[in-house]
Design goal:
The protein is an alpha+beta fold. The chain has one domain: Fumarylacetoacetate hydrolase, domain 2. 13% of the residues lie in helices and 32% in strands. The chain has 1 helix and 4 strands. Strands 2-1-3-4 form a 4-stranded antiparallel sheet, with no helix packed on it. Strand 1 and strand 2 form a beta hairpin. The longest helix has 11 residues.
């Protein structure tokens, strides 16, 4: 499962999940396109996105914490920053 959570302070603003099987393209097909034109002698990361999107009226704000978790792989956590 892929899980997406967006936190604003202590408040959960958005939470959703979906099975990895709902991805439109297989990981094999995505990797084939990635390596079609490029060489990666030391490896690379293929970022697929989450396929989970908050409603159109939702906008991230500075300091929001976005967590994307894929079972069996781990969690990616990012905090929204503003212009430097």
């Amino acid at each position: 499962m892929i899980h997406l959570e967006i936190h604003r302070g202590d408040k959960m603003m958005f939470k959703d999940s979906t099975p990895v099987s709902r991805m439109k393209r297989s990981l094999t097909e995505l990797a084939a396109y990635l390596f079609r034109e490029c060489d990666f002698p030391v490896g690379c990361f293929l970022m697929t996105g989450t396929c989970l999107v908050p409603p159109n009226d939702f906008t991230l704000q500075k300091k929001d914490r976005v967590e994307i978790r894929i079972e069996g792989i781990g969690t990616l956590t990012n905090t929204v920053s503003g212009k430097p």
